[in-house]
From TrEMBL:
Protein name: Uncharacterized protein
Domain of life: Bacteria
Organism from which the protein derives: Marivirga sericea
Length: 336
């Protein structure tokens, strides 16, 4: 029996269509692939700093007050001046000891008036920030916008360089919230293996909890943030982000005496999160397809790996290990 060859069209899942036309992503995907979203959670340490050189300070062992005059010229004390200042006329300044840096007394129960010397009120608190950023990425550069929400702890402040028997300042709130909205820009300045190194800057405004920092008494300024994020590239669409950053911001508190005090708020943060880009091609719908690269099926192009794996390893589809596995720290320990 003679078998004659027949010509038939056989489905080739790896090849282009018969007319071999070029297959590219649509316009929407070509634009969307330049956008990415980042979400991260972390920890921050806030440092407060005030210059109080122009004020006399009264310490009664457990509380600090600024000394001033009310509208009638009476001597008063100003308490809680960080966020919700109030006046009191019950301070006994006549019997207080005028503090000298050579003073030998250390009675916690005595009252002191501090008039001379450099007076810097410094201290800190903790913060838990979470942020969402949207970037437009082009080559090594990116621009975007974002929002950050922070939970902040109470503030504990001390007069820098003064002994323990001078009272500390403790805020009247246990916690407060910060909301930040900003524009951001950055550049990728270095790549090493599957790590990318960026320098980012933010500029925007922030708002504090009205319950802790009433808007009628406390005003905020625009702020800057400088960060040096490091990104671990699991694929061209999925990255682990480690972001150390420094916030530079300040507030102004209006006192009942008509004066105002500026407080610098420096916040050092470290956040960990992920950044995800919009993929150029859809995931291959064929469940048993083993292609690791971008590839064609008839008239469409697909990516060969999930969004969290490297899509374009420099190996053939038949290589038993994709690039993501080849980038392990100790590949020789992997069981074959």
């Amino acid at each position: 029996m003679t078998i004659s060859p027949s010509i038939g069209q056989v489905f080739n899942p790896w090849g282009p269509p018969p007319n071999d036309k070029e297959i590219e992503a649509n316009l929407f995907r070509r634009i969307a692939q330049h956008f990415s979203a980042e979400v991260a959670l972390g920890y921050g340490s806030t440092r407060y700093r005030q210059n109080l050189d122009e004020y006399q300070i009264y310490s009664n062992g457990s509380n600090l007050y600024l000394l001033g005059e009310d509208s009638l010229g009476n001597s008063v004390g100003i308490g809680n001046w960080l966020n919700r200042p109030f006046l009191t006329d019950t301070l006994d300044t006549a019997s207080a000891i005028w503090y000298q840096n050579t003073l030998n007394e250390s009675d916690q129960n005595r009252s002191y008036v501090i008039d001379s010397l450099e007076k810097r009120l410094v201290g800190g608190g903790n913060a838990i920030p979470i942020h969402l950023k949207l970037h437009f990425n082009y080559d090594r550069y990116r621009i975007g916008a974002g929002a950050t929400f922070e939970i902040n702890s109470k503030a504990n402040l001390q007069l820098k360089g003064f002994p323990d028997y001078v009272a500390n300042y403790e805020s009247d709130f246990k916690r407060f919230y910060t909301r930040k909205f900003y524009l951001t820009a950055g550049v990728r300045y270095y790549d090493f293996w599957d790590f990318s190194y960026f320098a980012d800057i933010e500029y925007g405004n922030f708002r504090l909890s009205e319950s802790a920092f009433p808007g009628g008494q406390v005003s905020t300024n625009n702020y800057w943030n400088i960060s040096l994020p490091i990104e671990k590239n699991f694929s061209e669409y999925f990255r682990l982000v480690m972001r150390p950053s420094l916030d530079l911001k300040s507030i102004n508190t209006t006192l009942p005496t008509g004066q105002s005090i500026k407080t610098n708020l420096w916040n050092l943060q470290f956040q960990v999160g992920v950044r995800v880009s919009f993929p150029l091609f859809k995931k291959c719908p064929i469940s048993n397809c083993e292609a690791q690269k971008e590839h064609r099926h008839i008239d469409k192009k697909f990516r060969g790996q999930p969004i969290y794996k490297w899509q374009n390893p420099k190996v053939g589809e038949n290589d038993p290990y994709n690039m993501n596995e080849k980038r392990e720290a100790f590949p020789f320990l992997k069981r074959k």
